[in-house]
Design brief:
With about 260 residues, the protein is α+β, with helices and mostly antiparallel strands. The chain contains nine helices and six strands, in the order βαββααβαααααββα.
Length: about 260
């Protein structure tokens, strides 16, 4: 669950270039402005590490209602060549990774890692592994309506906690409707190719600019943070950003202290 302020995402495409760095330490005060700080987040709802990373970020933001972030979610398909109807998740994983024992071991390590991060995760709960382009289209449309983070939360909850097939148009329309969007309009859009080429192009553009795995976070369009970072990391980042922005006016207007 995210903090309870109004959704601050707008679905705006990322148009910068990725730069290295793990936190905004040592930046000039002019690098990060006092207003809302853009936090671009590249995710795929079927990615378990995105689930953990999103939950960690949400916990950190809930604990810091003074945080400056404006969240913007971006598409990155783990399996862009997945057929439209998806596949049986277990069978696909066992074929890809070399059989049931290996997948069992992978899932147990994932459960333990998630548990240590305070996230309950059962990798076997979702029965299907869908093509997620339509889920990303829903996220995009939710951004237009100012509901993006809310719908992202709902998609992860539907897939990882409820095992729903988020590649199914009816399920996606239900998720949208459960979060204030118009079900009939969503079904019409999902039955078309609306924004599909744009979302696929944004995915390719992210890869071209350096995103190789998810989750990937981009702070203030400058600093890249890969992976599912713990809440403590985000708390430190928020503290540093607020300290920088509070010092900026005094440093930019030294006569104000005379």
């Amino acid at each position: 669950m995210t903090d309870d302020r109004p959704d601050q995402s707008d679905g705006a495409p990322f148009d910068g270039a990725l730069r290295s760095g793990t936190r905004p330490s040592g930046t000039r005060p002019s690098d990060i402005q006092p207003e809302a700080v853009r936090l671009d987040i590249f995710i795929d709802p079927v990615c378990p590490w995105c689930h953990v990373g999103k939950a960690n970020l949400a916990r950190a933001l809930a604990a810091r209602p003074d945080h400056p972030f404006r969240l913007i979610w971006h598409p990155f398909q783990l399996n862009p060549e997945m057929k439209p109807g998806g596949v049986d998740k277990r069978a696909w994983l066992e074929e890809k990774f070399g059989g049931k024992p290996r997948v069992d071991a992978m899932h147990e390590r994932l459960r333990e890692t998630a548990r240590n991060a305070g996230v309950e995760l059962d990798p076997d709960r979702p029965a299907r592994l869908p093509n997620t382009l339509d889920a990303h289209r829903l996220i995009h449309w939710a951004g237009i309506e100012g509901r993006q983070t809310q719908v992202v939360d709902a998609l992860f909850h539907a897939y990882w906690d409820q095992g729903r097939d988020i590649g199914d148009a009816q399920v996606l329309a239900d998720i949208g409707a459960e979060n204030g969007m118009t079900r009939e309009a969503l079904l019409r859009l999902l039955a078309s190719q609306a924004d599909a080429d744009d979302l696929a192009a944004r995915d390719r553009d992210a890869r071209h600019k350096g995103v190789t795995a998810v989750p990937t976070f981009l702070i203030a369009q400058k600093y890249v943070v890969p992976g599912a970072q713990p809440p403590e990391f985000w708390d430190q980042v928020i503290t540093e950003i607020l300290a920088e922005t509070s010092r900026a006016p005094a440093q930019q207007n030294p006569e104000s202290q005379s």
